[in-house]
């Protein structure tokens, strides 16, 4: 499965085991935006686990409180940040402290895909 969803604040691509999100430039990501992720989880992953991958190509801010709400999505099993930007990676390290599920930071999108696939595969074994 691969489907593209376009919103006013981001573009999402739906895959079998993960969703890849690219936020638009200048967005201030607050907990209110979580409703979109909840809808995506219910629509595309209602009966299976998935991983959220944010591909940080643009500059935007994240309210760390969003992770409290994101953690409540039961079938969301992990979170990955992909960026080559030093500041973005430092911010992700801070955000990591607010999320209580697997959370990894990558510089390569394909490495994030591998990690997500491995995480899902290992869930199946548990």
Question: Any key phrases for this structure?
Answer:
126 residues; Transcription Regulator spoIIAA; alpha/beta; 6-stranded mixed beta sheet; two-stranded parallel ribbon; 4 helices
Low-confidence stretches: none
- Radius of gyration of CA atoms, rounded to a whole number: 13 Å
User: What is the CATH level 1 assignment?
Assistant: Alpha Beta
Outline, from the CA principal axes? globular
User: Kindly state the mean pLDDT as a whole number?
Assistant: 91
- CATH hierarchy: architecture: 2-Layer Sandwich
The total tally of domains equals: 1
Estimate percent helicity: 25-40%
CATH topology-level name: Transcription Regulator spoIIAA
Order of helices and strands: EEEEHEEHEHEH
Total number of helices: 4
Percent strand equals 25-35%
- Enumerate the strands of the largest sheet in spatial order, edge to edge or round the barrel: 1-2-3-5-7-8
Fourth-tier CATH superfamily name: STAS domain
Number of strands: 8
- What is the terminal separation in angstroms? 25 Å
- Summing up helix and strand content along with how strands pair, one would put the structural category as alpha/beta
The major β-sheet equals: 6 strands, mixed
């Amino acid at each position: 499965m691969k489907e593209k969803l376009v919103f006013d604040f981001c573009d999402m691509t739906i895959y079998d085991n993960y969703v890849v999100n690219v936020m638009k430039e200048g967005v201030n990501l607050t907990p209110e935006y979580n409703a979109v992720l909840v809808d995506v989880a219910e629509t595309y992953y209602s009966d299976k686990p998935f991983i959220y991958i944010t591909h940080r190509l643009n500059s935007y801010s994240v309210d760390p409180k969003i992770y409290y709400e994101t953690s409540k999505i039961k079938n969301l099993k992990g979170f990955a940040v992909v960026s080559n930007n030093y500041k973005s990676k430092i911010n992700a390290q801070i955000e990591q402290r607010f999320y209580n599920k697997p959370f990894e930071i990558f510089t390569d999108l394909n490495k994030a895909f591998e990690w997500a696939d491995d995480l899902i595969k290992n869930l199946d074994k548990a």
